[in-house]
Each structure stands twice: as C-alpha cells, then as structure tokens.
Amino acid sequence: MKRILVVDDDSLIRYSLSAAFQDRDTEIITRPDSRTGLKALGDWLFDLCFLDIQLPDGNGVDMLRMIRQLSPKTKIIMMTGSQPDAAAMRTIRENAFLFLAKPFDLFRVKRVLDALNREDENAFQNFEELETRVAERRRDRRRQAAAKQITFVTVPSDAGEKEDCHKGDLVDISDRGTRIRTAHHLKPGSMIRFRNSVNEAAGVVRWSATDKEKNDRYVAGIQLIGREGG
After folding, report:
1. DSSP E strands: which ranges in 83-217?
2. Which of 48-62, 133-147, 213-227 is predicted least confidently?
3. Domain shared by 129 and 158, yes or no
4. CA separation (Å) from 41 to 48, 52, 74?
C-alpha cells in the first residue's frame, strides 16, 4: 500500500485528491499547512507528497528542502497556480519529482500514481511544458462565452458505484471554473469529469439551480480542480 501526503491550505484540493485515490490501495493523509505537514512526515513514511508552493505558515519551496532532509525517498509533486521565480524554480527542478500547474486534470494525476506504482519516471511531462501552461494561464483570466455541447460523468462518492454519463451545454468558462446547462440535477459538492472538453478537466459542483429559460434544465457552477493563487 502506498502512503500519500497532501499539504495544501485549499480544502477543495485536499478533498479532491483524497477522493481520487481512495480506491487505489493507498492511504491518504492531508494537512493544511507546513507545520502539521512536517509533523506528519515525522510520524509516518510517505511514498509521495503533493505540496502547494503557497502555504499559510510558510513557503512550500522551503518545506520542499526540509522534506528532502527528513524523508529523502519521498517523491514530491509541487503544485501552484502562479509562476515561481527563478530561484524557486531551480530548487523545484533539483528536488521535486514533478511540477503541476493549477488547475490540473485530476485524472492525469491518477495516471501519475499509476506510473509511480510502475516506477516509470519516463511517463511524466517535462518542466518546460508545465511552466508554459502556467504562463499561458496567466494571460487571460476572463470568463468567456462558450456555447458547446459537452459530455461529462459524475464521479461516484462511494466505492462500488458506477460513473453515470450525461450530456449538456457549456455556457461559459474561465480558468477558475465553468457553468454548464444539463437535464441532470447535479448535487453541490459532487465531483464530475468532462470528456473531450474543458481540457479533460475534473471539477466540483459549487451550486445548481433550475434554468430560468428552460424549466426542464438545470444550470450548475463547476469549480475546476486547482484554483489560481494556491
């Protein structure tokens, strides 16, 4: 069994990563800051650590160095929604296993775990490509109209349940989230995954209401996994 530590002050990130790995023969431990994260590293051995760069009580890059001393065998995945400076990027390159730009594709992260289980480090993209994604994401944060038909699946909340596939329309989209219109009522707090749209992203339903123009449809606000700034 793999043991994974998630250190991020965003409860949505902690919840989403925990839900993503709950059925993969893993033990997930989450912490909201560097103090409790370092304590967990002193209490247990971890195979993998997801570490946010911006933490409420410290710098994730500093914590990265500490983890390298405390637990050198732990692979570290750094997460950020902003472009690190040159010095921070050098430290990340030298010490981290992977650098994920937020918002990230939750199902790509699952593939990271699969590759880790296979001990296949060649399965990961290089730093330059991921840095480019961060830079491009910073150029335009405005919400854009996006009339487009989409397909999405609801992610089961309990083991043994099956994913349900649904159709809908993409109303608009930004880096932080999107609105969709669908005949299926989505429960706030549930997770969905887009297929062949929205960059294959996953998200959490933040709200859902009856469409004022079409009473047999619902409009839902989806927060994409991994918001800017964290």
Report:
1. 98-101, 144-155, 164-173, 177-182, 191-195, 202-210
2. 133-147
3. no
4. 11, 15, 10
